[in-house]
Amino acid sequence: QTIYFLSITCFSVGLLSSWPRALAVVGGRQAFRTISQSAARRLYGMGLVFGALAVGTYLYMTWAAGGLMAVYSHAKGGAYSTSGYIGDGALFSFPAVLAIAVSCRASGARVQFRDVALSLLFMSPHLIQGTLGTRRGPIFVAVVTLFFAWIIAGHRRPSWRTVMIGIGVAGLCVFLVWSQRQYVYIGSEGSIELDRIWDVVAPETVTRGDTYVMGGASMLSVEKSKHYYWGYRYFVMLFIRPIPHQLWPTKYEDMGATWIYGYGMRDDQLDSDRLNGVGFSTPGGAAMPSIADGYLEFSWGALPLFFFIGWTYAKIWGLHRSRGGEWTIVFSVMLALSIYLASQSVTAWAYRLLLVSLPTMWIWRHWIEPPCHARAGRNCLEQRRRSYPRTRSVPDSANL
Fold first, then answer.
1. Confidence (pTM)
2. Is there a contact between 345 and 361 (Cβ–Cβ < 8 Å)?
């Protein structure tokens, strides 16, 4: 309980670390800079490419697994791929939908039916996985991303009531699919019963696979065994995993990380420590929250880790407020992926964030709005000067 309380406190302090400076930069106003019509078209095109990539990889995985009926004919169904890049390709749904929204907002265009239809199509892999596959993460991220896209493209700041309703709907979707997990799939003879939601919110019994039990058992076990990982798992997930298997076929064996082949990153050493530490092992596929995961990795170093995560949210929020553009897409993705900090590991959040953010930022810098020295025309600097909002607290040279 002490680790949980102090980690959340450090996270909150990190969140509050830079917001006064961010507000000072924009004078309390949101910065959605205007971009040229050609840049807006390129941004829309990026959304189409990302969306086609997401839907295409999802269709390929579903087809390779035997089709929609075979994939979702059992509880917690879903299509998986032996290739990590193909398996993660559906994540590009998020920047695709947000790119369409930012393009409409930045160019001043009104949202058309085509934009709505494309957004729903591009988000369909996660909507299907969240409903038929009854997955909490995909349904939350999908609903929240669509909600943020609607806000961004709406050309006006939403009220607190609207925001709370949107987040409430996303939370309700999570509890709904979570509570019906064993009953909703193609061919199921069960029915949806809303009473099951309360069983999830306030269960009468707690199982070994419960998220809190999983986290607590892991923390107590590693405290007894002293088998901390000291960044090893994070290094493997964030730096070794992205290396294509064709370039390094034995990368996991060479790194001693064969546990990554198991479902839910099952580690035999950790299972043995749990059995010796608390007297029971947790079932495969059960996940611990990010605070427990951080404690397994760094012991009390989890506290500065969560301060850094909070600071990162605050920093990206400041860039979103002061510059907009690609930072609005990155910040919206960060907010949508925040559910993984509550329900899974730190790397489950960080890996997804890096996978979709780095290509988005690279394409923005090199294609959507490339540096002035790479652009044709003598008026590049003047156009870029007019693109950024003028404020009383920051001179034009700093904005430029």
1. 0.80
2. no
* Dihedral class, residue 135 (left if φ above 0, else alpha if ψ from -120 to 50, else beta): beta
- In terms of phi and psi (left: phi > 0; alpha: psi -120 to 50; beta: otherwise), the region of 315 is alpha
Closest by CA to 336, choosing from 315, 357, 322, is: 357
CB 99 within 8 A of CB 329: yes
Q: Which residues contact 334 (CB under 8 A, 6 or more apart)?
A: 312, 313, 316, 353
User: Distances in Å between the alpha carbon of 85 and those of 58, 61, 77, 260?
Assistant: 11, 11, 20, 15
Q: Side chain identity at 110, as an amino acid letter? A: R
Diameter over CA atoms, the chain: 72
Per-residue pLDDT of the chain (400 residues; tens, 9 = 90+): 899 999 999 999 999 886 666 555 554 455 555 567 788 888 889 999 999 999 999 888 888 877 777 778 777 777 776 666 787 888 899 999 999 988 888 777 777 888 899 999 999 998 888 888 778 888 888 898 998 888 888 767 778 888 888 888 888 888 888 777 777 777 777 677 777 777 777 777 887 778 888 888 888 888 888 888 898 889 988 888 888 878 888 888 888 877 776 544 445 666 777 777 777 777 766 778 899 999 999 999 999 999 999 999 999 988 888 787 888 899 999 988 988 898 888 988 999 999 999 999 999 888 887 765 444 444 454 454 444 444 333 333 333 3
Token pair of 288 as six digits: 């611990």
3-class secondary-structure state, position 209: coil
For 380, counting Cβ atoms within 10 Å of its Cβ (0-12 exposed, 13-18 middle, 19+ buried), the class is middle
Burial-class residue 367 by CB neighbours within 10 Å (0-12, 13-18, 19+). Answer: middle
CA distance 331 to 91: 15
Q: Which two tokens stand for residue 94?
A: 């998020």
The whole-angstrom separation of Cα 320 and Cα 335 is 12
- How far is Cα of residue 322 from the mean position of the Cα atoms in its chain? 22
**102 contacts 65 by C-beta, under 8 angstroms:** no
Q: Which of 324, 317, 332 is nearest to 145 (CA)?
A: 332
Q: How many CA atoms lie within 13 A of 185 on its CB side?
A: 18
For residues 120 and 150, is the Cβ–Cβ distance under 8 A? Answer: no
d(CA 54, CA 335): 20
